[in-house]
Amino acid sequence: MTQIKAAITGICGYVPDYILTNAELETMVDTSDEWITSRTGIKERRILKGEGMGTSHMGAEAVKGLLRKTDTRPQDIDLIICSTTTPDFVFPASANIISDMVGAKNAFSYDMQAACSGFLYAMSTASQFIETGRYKKVIVVGADKMSSIVDYQDRSTCIIFGDGAGAALLEPSTDGNGLIDFVLKSDGSGINHLVQKAGGSRRPPSIETVTNREHYIYQEGAAVFKFAVTNMAEAAAQIMERNRLTSGQVKWLCPHQANKRIISATADRMGIGEEKVMINIHKYGNTTNATLPLALWDYESQLRKGDNIVFAAFGGGFTWGAAYLKWAYDGDQFA
Ligand code: ACO
């Protein structure tokens, strides 16, 4: 029997209009364009403005665009998984809200939380529903309104994050293209270095938590950097080794866009040059769950059927991992 794989058959992104530049950040905190560019590679990021606008708005826009371009009817979607760290509400799930907004009446839907590795976790999970033959059309959405948990008085975090969303359609494939393998890892002791301290069940919101600015991202940047640089590169190398992929056979690295220096270290460890690395961190910063699908969306027109793509990500938790996917269509077919 031919083995079913989960292929990405369409990709779409959405970023809000408002552009927060390094120049504007210079007026908000003690920083400089030179520092931000040299330490992170980021030039600007998008911010979702407007009362009552949450992560689901961006996720739904990405899904609507995806349904349009792939000529898919919303009622034919079986499942929507939304990976997000900034859901609209603690409950209900943003995936439920997105399903309603796009008219996916026959889909069940749920959220996944793995910080910046979320899309990798969600794509790997989604692929299992397809490989078993149980479902035919699964959408994975990676979306975050990071500006809702960023402290714009903290120069070490506010320069990094941006808002955005991306969505991928996964369908069964029997021609050998699709998700081939993944390595997913986690280490909960990372809570000491990267956490939103309040707002959950351990420390519910109170006047004290608000006064202490505990609803914002707390990050010990240097410690996270060290862990990220080692583990993202190691996971990417591991996925290559166990699939006997040489650096010459890798067509693209699609890395989480947290810091240009972490991306370069991963590419070096894989033995590939910059021309094979998808990079858009300069435009969007770190959009957490949206970085991988936004990178695929930006590079889609250059992708060819059968291209070997290695994904690598790292995030809060800690969570990290890598995946190997054979691209299933010529990207310029949607141009
Ligand atoms: N402008 C100017 N100076 C700054 C700024 C800024 N925006 N931010 C920090 N500095 C200063 C610090 O105060 C420090 O000064 P000091 O030496 O006088 O104390 C100096 O720069 C160095 O600070 P570091 O934090 O060591 O700077 P580093 O080179 O490590 O860069 C950064 C900071 C960009 C945050 C980096 O550590 C990083 O990218 N870390 C990894 C982030 C990541 O991958 N997170 C995981 C995903 S996020 C998620 O899952 C939600």
Report on the architecture of this protein.
- The chain is an alpha/beta fold and 335 residues long.
- The protein has two domains: 5-176, Thiolase/Chalcone synthase (Peroxisomal Thiolase, Chain A, domain 1), CATH 3.40.47.10; 180-334, Thiolase/Chalcone synthase (Peroxisomal Thiolase, Chain A, domain 1, 3-Layer(aba) Sandwich).
- 32% of the residues lie in helices and 24% in strands.
- The chain has eleven helices and 13 strands.
- It has helices spanning 22-26, 33-40, 55-69, 94-102, 118-131, 155-158, 207-211, 221-242, 260-270, 281-284, 291-299; strands at 5-14, 18-21, 44-47, 79-83, 108-112, 138-145, 163-173, 178-186, 194-196, 217-219, 252-255, 308-315, 319-326.
- The chain has a five-stranded mixed beta sheet, sandwiched between helices. It has a four-stranded mixed beta sheet with strand order 8-13-12-11, sandwiched between helices.
- Helix 4 (94-102) links the parallel strand 4 (79-83) and strand 5.
- The longest helix is centred in the C-terminal third of the chain and has 22 residues, at 221-242.
- The model has no long low-confidence stretch (mean pLDDT 97).
- Acetyl coenzyme *A binds at residues 31, 35-36, 39-40, 85, 115-116, 155-156, 159-160, 194, 221-222, 224-225, 228, 258-259, 262, 286, 288, 314-316.
How does the SSE layout of this entry go?
Blueprint: E1 5-14, E2 18-21, H1 22-26, H2 33-40, E3 44-47, H3 55-69, E4 79-83, H4 94-102, E5 108-112, H5 118-131, E6 138-145, H6 155-158, E7 163-173, E8 178-186, E9 194-196, H7 207-211, E10 217-219, H8 221-242, E11 252-255, H9 260-270, H10 281-284, H11 291-299, E12 308-315, E13 319-326
Helix pairs in contact: 3-4, 8-9
Bound molecules: acetyl coenzyme *A.
